[in-house]
Design brief:
This protein is globular. The chain contains 8 helices and 11 strands. It folds into 2 domains: about 130 residues, MutM-like, N-terminal (N-terminal domain of MutM-like DNA repair proteins); about 120 residues, Helicase, Ruva Protein, domain 3 (Orthogonal Bundle). By secondary structure, it is of the alpha+beta class. The model has no long low-confidence stretch (mean pLDDT about 95).
Length: about 280
């Protein structure tokens, strides 16, 4: 699933490429990706609007329109927003669910192979309501070590599950929770409330660092993630634990362990150097 670095990369690409462009035509090919609007109503409300800005909130890609509304895309597992100047591969176009024709002749496709992602047109008020329960953005200045300590205090659930709770910290998923906890030397199964202040300081630094490094590498691609240009992210080459179960820990040499017992997701960690 695209997490913060992947959706941030997509949003930045879109802002550079399509901000200021007018949407001339909208074709809904797979209506099951739409939320809160029928295909006809969606087409009527979006056609003719100008894309003013593209940005990210949590794992959402947001396109702010001149109408005052927001196009909110949640890519989930196989979704991608791809800019097509006529050279997009046919197999990518094949899975286009919604196509936006722009005033410069290019098309912006929402491609979703399994159609698990969503596209929603929201008013400003609805967007505020929709995102009100989301937690702090880990790349914001408000995300300090002290703030993280306060968020973790008293929580009995595992530190990994807590980091992935979008109501606590927005944008972190399975990949970067694994990586940040390994970097900080913290056992992912520990209760969040057991994290001491010095550990929270280290964890906050590692969360920020791994997210920024991944953004610089344009995200992590295993299977379906593509940036807005259709390219794969390169951070997969720098992963220390995720996807590396059974390999040697690059820090201490112990064999990396994989478990699904913590939160039902794949957790890879080093039992020797994560305490």
């Amino acid at each position: 699933m695209p997490e913060l670095p992947e959706t941030e990369t997509i949003a930045r690409d879109l802002d550079q490429e399509v901000a200021g462009r007018r949407i001339e035509r909208v074709v809904v090919r797979r209506a099951d990706v739409l939320r809160e609007s029928s295909p006809g109503r969606f087409v009527r409300r979006v056609t003719g609007a100008t894309i003013e800005r593209c940005w990210r909130r949590a794992k959402l890609v947001v396109m702010s329109l001149s109408s005052g509304e927001h196009l909110v895309v949640q890519p989930r597992f196989t979704g991608a927003l791809l800019i097509d100047d006529g050279t997009l591969a046919a197999d990518e176009r094949r899975y286009s669910t919604v196509a936006f024709t722009l005033d410069d002749g290019r098309t912006l496709h929402y491609r979703d192979i399994r159609r698990l992602g969503t596209v929603t047109l929201m008013s400003r008020a609805r967007f505020h309501e929709y995102t009100a329960s989301l937690g702090v953005e880990p790349l914001d200045r408000a995300f300090t070590a002290e703030h993280l300590s306060a968020l973790l205090a008293g929580r009995r659930q595992s530190i990994k599950k807590t980091l992935m709770d979008q109501r606590v910290v927005a944008g972190i998923g399975n990949i970067y929770a694994n990586e940040a906890l390994w970097r900080a030397g913290i056992d992912p199964s520990r209760a969040a409330g057991s994290i001491a202040s010095d550990e929270a300081t280290a964890l906050r630094e590692e969360i920020v660092d791994v997210l920024r490094e991944s953004i610089a590498a344009r995200g992590t691609s295993f299977r379906d993630y593509r940036d807005a240009r259709g390219e794969r992210g390169r951070f997969v080459e720098k992963l220390a634990v995720y996807g590396r179960a059974g390999e040697r820990c690059s820090r201490c040499g112990a064999r990396l362990i994989e478990t699904h017992a913590i939160d039902g997701r794949s957790t890879v960690f080093c039992a020797r150097c994560q305490k």
